[in-house]
TrEMBL record:
GO cellular component, as recorded: cytoplasm
FAD dependent oxidoreductase domain: residues covered: 41-424
Matching Gene3D superfamilies: D-Amino Acid Oxidase, subunit A, domain 2 (3.30.9.10), FAD/NAD(P)-binding domain (3.50.50.60)
Protein name (record): FAD dependent oxidoreductase
Amino acid sequence: MTQSHLPFPVPVPNATIPFWRTNPHPLDTHRSTASLPQKTDILIIGAGYAGISTAYHLITSSSSSPPPSIVLLEAREICSGATGRNGGHLRPSVPFPELIEKYGIAACLEIVLFEIAHMDAMKSLIEKEGIVCDFTLTGGHTVTKDPATVEFMKDVLGRYIAECPDLAEDYTVVVGEEAEKQSGVKGVIGDWQHEVAHLWPYKLFAGLLEICVKRGVNLQTNTAVLKSGGRDEEGYWGFETERGDVRAKKVVFATNGYTAGLLPEYKDVIAPRKALCTHIVVKPSAEDGKVKRMGNGWDSTYIIEPPLGGFDYLIQRPDGGVVVGGANRTYKEDGSGLGDWDDSSMIKPAEGYFEGYLERYFSTFKKGEDEETVDMAWTGIQGHTPDSLPHIGAVPGKEGQFIIAGFNGHGMPVIHLSSKGLVEMIVEGKKFEETRIPKLYEATKERLGVKFVL
Ligand SMILES: Cc1cc2nc3c(=O)[nH]c(=O)nc-3n(C[C@H](O)[C@H](O)[C@H](O)COP(=O)(O)OP(=O)(O)OC[C@H]3O[C@@H](n4cnc5c(N)ncnc54)[C@H](O)[C@@H]3O)c2cc1C
């Protein structure tokens, strides 16, 4: 397999093991055929959330007979990228004032509503396909101790509610002492509350992939694409892989933080960023045998202290465990993380950050009474963009090539419906603006000029 010292991002061997991937699905290292197909109608590169969702929408929406042939190539195991390493938090967010100033409230509101729409869409998908993945709808708390951040929360929310009054039913900002009381987080004075969900991402996307493979998608794991080639006279794009060449009429780059490895025009446009997550085991109380929970509900989730130089995100799992990630306030200032695609090692400055975390932040946790142990820690590679927006649609100037990448560590409430829209472009030939994907997500030539300075 290709190595991390190369000048462009590629998935590295011996990645850290995330909690979510401790019990691999039978498809984890699956190859549908012993040899690599040499030719296909549609090639998808990357078997994470974006690649699998694209395959799923392709097979469930295609009415053509025979259906198009689809090959899905994955450099490592399925969901071994960000999808199998994330925080499991499905939390619709809102674009911040810089984006409102730059693009206008209407374009930003489109994103807000699109993300909220993922709550129902994901729930329906999971129910329809009967996938057991611990999907839990619950309340989310975004909490802060900083008065300026409270004002910021009220201001941002106020702007969206002024434009779309129905949002007042979905979002509230609780302030003062009540914020600590309702969230259970020590010393906070602001608590932005709304509906969120959490789930086991690996189980969901492995389950969807199983449906795809049963319906004919040719999955080839441990098959890194090494190079994109040109287009031949029959209109097929050529790709060099570790196991031979593949030609495809249409190709979808679902390679997130690694995209620039195959599409050089995305160098510093979508940059890899290394991030950290942990799993905490909470010992049941000796008194009643119950596991301590935080906040006003068994399942509530948290974003802790944004945006003061970074934040942490936390979910409480149905089995009593906690998945918490972030710690970027420990390393963000020195810029480490951005430009790093090595998920085989941890992040040095963040070492020890999550030890004693629950006791440090939550009033329900009492030193000496409760016990918490960080039993697993891992890293993962996100795809970041300087404008904080993903790139979705046709790759500029390359007919038949499509991209769905650059989710800025926030793909859960974005990718499912984006991939649905992308498939409408691929199969029905729709223009980007004819899909429901927010305008600001469009992959354009202009946005290729918006680069990080690394
Ligand atoms: C630590 C961490 C915590 C996160 N927490 C959250 C969260 O709580 N909520 C949330 O909304 N989002 C979160 N995210 C972000 C979320 O996981 C991503 O936005 C989402 O999973 C992106 O999916 P993807 O399919 O685009 O990318 P990936 O899952 O990274 O998939 C890309 C795939 O492409 C493959 N690939 C790359 N290059 C090649 C190549 N040359 N040949 C073949 N295959 C290739 C990779 O191996 C990989 O499997 C987190 C991310 C991380 C890393």
